[in-house]
Specification:
heterodimer, A: 79 residues, mainly beta, 0% helix, B: alpha/beta, TIM Barrel, 9 strands, globular
Chain lengths: 79, 290
């Protein structure tokens, strides 16, 4: 089953976008639930975002240096 | 997003919990139409705190009447005071089973009482509904003693008012505030026997001896708890980060503050005035005389 990994929404007025600093994984790699997936940067800090599930990273849609908006699919993980 | 944000030092990195862990707090805030300073100020600890089931409620609307250059909260025309807001905060505290509730507000210089009555009503509502201890983080009420007294009379367990920075930087960081006025507020709170707490941000261009001076002033005013954390710029329109203060210097200042007689000190890069507030309060309330 495909899971669309999205930048989480932290509520109204929380940061609505973040920059992809780097991916800890590459397309085709296996990830465990809770494993570091991507590092994001907001104006205030850098955040490591863990994988919400175990699976294989099928596709990375937002590349390093690009901006992701809340709710936008950043990667597809095949569970 | 600016180029400067790429230069965060290694110690300014957080781990975002899974959304499911934050869901209870996010759902309660949405259901009860409450806002938090965690979201409004774009706090970097938001994921960690929400996943732990805590939040700092922000009452009296989302619009601030002041224009501090460090703060992400919006300015503009303030919203009407909501009569049921204290009950909604109390309901959220009960729903999230909070033992220590932190309540702050935007500054409301447009209101004759600065919002002090709403603070007092919120403290009472939480006490009555779930018995949690309450920590308020208030504005300076433009120095009006009767408003400070109104909040204090409601019996918060901790009364926090941040001096935010050293007096030399007030003009550029807190242009509508007054350092001595803030100290007077804290002195008044302490004289009433309530735990007085304050905090300041580092990295705005202050000198270390100036920080030591502020710590001494806070102790002289009767403050028993203090927080120190790294200033982080909400956007490129805000005051620049002059320095990323290394963790070792925060630790050194923590020890110095304890040496000055503070009973509870939180000093580290990601410390904010309400970060781990419950733990800090427990440290102090445990030694509060009967």
């Amino acid at each position: 089953m495909e899971h669309r990994f999205q930048l989480p929404d932290l509520g109204e007025d929380a940061p609505d976008k973040a920059e992809v600093s780097f991916w800890y994984v590459q397309e085709g790699e296996e990830v465990e639930e809770g494993q570091d997936l991507v590092e994001m940067i907001t104006d205030k800090a850098a955040f490591t975002v863990p994988s919400p599930l175990k699976g294989a990273v099928k596709q990375i849609l937002i590349q390093e240096g690009d901006i992701a908006r809340v709710g936008q699919t950043m990667a597809v993980i095949e569970a | 997003m600016s180029d400067t944000v790429r230069r965060f030092p290694a110690w300014l990195k957080k781990r975002l919990p899974a959304r499911e862990q934050m869901a209870p707090v996010l759902d309660a805030l949405r259901d009860l139409h409450l806002c938090t300073v965690c979201q409004e100020a774009r706090c970097p600890n938001i994921g960690e705190c929400f996943a732990r089931g805590t939040a700092t409620f922000m009452i009296l609307g989302r619009i601030c009447t002041r224009h501090c250059t460090f703060c992400a909260v919006r300015g503009g025309r303030p919203e009407p005071v909501e009569a049921r807001e204290p009950q909604r905060v109390a309901e959220a505290a009960e729903r999230l089973a909070l033992k220590h509730v932190v309540v702050t507000s935007v500054t409301r210089d447009d209101l004759p009482d600065g919002g002090s009555e709403q603070f007092a009503r919120t403290i009472r509502a939480v006490h009555e509904r779930c018995g949690a201890s309450v920590e308020v983080l208030t504005p300076d009420f433009e120095g009006r003693a009767e408003d400070v007294d109104q909040v204090a009379s409601a019996g918060p367990e901790v009364f926090n008012h941040n001096v935010e920075t050293v007096p030399r930087l007030y003009r550029e960081v807190r242009p509508q505030a007054d350092y001595e006025r803030s100290l007077a507020l804290l002195r008044r709170v302490a004289e009433r026997g309530i735990v007085a707490k304050s905090g300041l941000m580092l990295g705005l261009g202050e000198r270390e001896e100036e920080v030591r001076g502020v710590l001494a002033d806070l102790r002289a005013a009767g403050c028993r708890a203090v927080t120190m954390g790294q200033y982080l710029r909400p956007s490129t329109r805000h005051h620049p980060v002059v320095e990323f203060v290394p963790p070792g210097r925060f630790e050194q200042l923590r020890l110095e503050a304890l040496g000055l007689g503070f009973e509870a000190v939180a000093s580290a890069p990601f410390v904010r005035s309400s970060y781990m507030a419950g733990q800090l309060a427990r440290e102090m309330l445990a030694v509060t005389p009967e």
